[in-house]
Amino acid sequence: MAAENRADTFLRMIRRSRRGRLKVYLGYAAGVGKTYEMLQEAHRLQTEGIDVIVGLVETHGRTDTARLLNGLEIVPRRRIEYRGIVLEEMDTEAILKRAPEIVLIDELAHTNVPGSRNAKRYQDVQDILAKEINVITTMNIQHLESLYDIVEKASGVRVFERIPDSVLADADQIVNVDVTTEDLSERLREGKVYPLERIETALSNFFRKANLEQLRELTLRELASQIDLRARDDLKEDLSATPDQIMVCLSSRGPNSERLLRYASRLAGRLNRNWYAVYVQTPSEEPTVIDAVTQRLLADTLTLAKQLGAIVFTFKGEDVVKTILQFAKEYRVGHIIIGSPERIPWWQWIRGRRSIAESLIREARDVTVVVQDTRAVEVSPAEAVVREEPEVEPAPAINVEAKTLSRVMSVQAVRMWDMPLKKNDLLRELTGAALRSAGIPQNPGFLAAVLAREDQGSTFFNEGVAFPHARITGIGRACVALGLTRAGVSDVVTDKPIECVFLILTPEEDPDTQIRILGLASRAVQDRQLVERLRSAARPEDAFKALQVWELIQEGG
Asked: What is the reported pTM?
């Protein structure tokens, strides 16, 4: 009966929806029954007259699961040749052409064969959702990006197929498929999970009792966290502008930067805060000085930060500590996260030299500095889950007026370019558009403030987006402009051409407004459906309407 109620809830959600909805069956290991329950729901929905098809389901030779495919329409898989071997993948184009009401897609974290439409299956799912097709999918907890280090420490297993946490956070419904570890082990021994020849290996490695118990605990904790975040959203709590944002400090040569980012991501999720990834480029780290391998590692780190939901900033300067503390003051940062301090020879320490971490601890005021151990050390499985998150109490809710991007801009503030243009020309046109849209007189000093902020550190990132911004004395009110570049920005070198630019001007005396709008813009460009609609917009009116519709969906309208 409980399963039928969950299916009915999802059905009601679909019927009142204006976009594709995502439902995730979440488990802690293979064999708990995610695919089985998903297929059972498909049959229940089918009896309700819903057009539901199978985009891709992996039975892994499980007879009971395979039997549930009977009576369901299955989209044939696409065959792709890779290095002389023919492999099968989900045919996303065929699903889009078929346009069902609901499609079942197994194993959300799967990595596609090179040459596929997208690198990852979750990106295929996002494309399908963007076409207003509802998706029911499955995944295991260990595939969440932010849990990678925790899972490796707890189980000794490196999980190579991972998805950004935001994918699960954006799900409209999450169902925890749970069985006791004893029952799962029994299923494994009975041959209901893996073929007979793999059972003993599985029981002595990943399926050890201690591993399963910790993965099960992680799943329950993640589910509780998701429920808490949704409850806050339902109460319309907006904590994004409180003076307790989180920043993580990155270095081109910093070891285990990924661990820092995952830690910050989970802390920000727990406190429901914006968070920033900040890289200060010193003269010794200029692109002409560091080698190509280091440059690639830095680019990959900044890309991961963006995927985990950070707002990424880069600065140039010789005094790293001063730059970090100035950023913390301007962006209302309450937690600074930095990696293990560098080792300083004793004779230099005697002369007064200190690591960046030590200097931050000494000079920071009203800021919590978290030094995360990024050294390659072994942590016992018993410690891994306990050390997952810091013991920090969430700040009390603050009642603030709900803000949306469309309330601080208008269709007149949307600009489009079909030809490449230079960065300063783009900033000049967007600044003018933002001011005209808000009815604020043009002032050369406003553009100068934007250019000065960009000189400090570019906000044009590898992910094809940019957030140029400035706080300005006497502007009176916030104003925003949106620029969509069809052919990129000619004098900005990024892995992915710049496509979407939000220019943000806010009053100098109101830092919270800047933080809030930056958070809104960051969330907007992380929504694949919205970005696709902005990319395909033919007119400024279409782009502005797409933004308004997306905001209505976020508000549950």
From this structure: 0.64
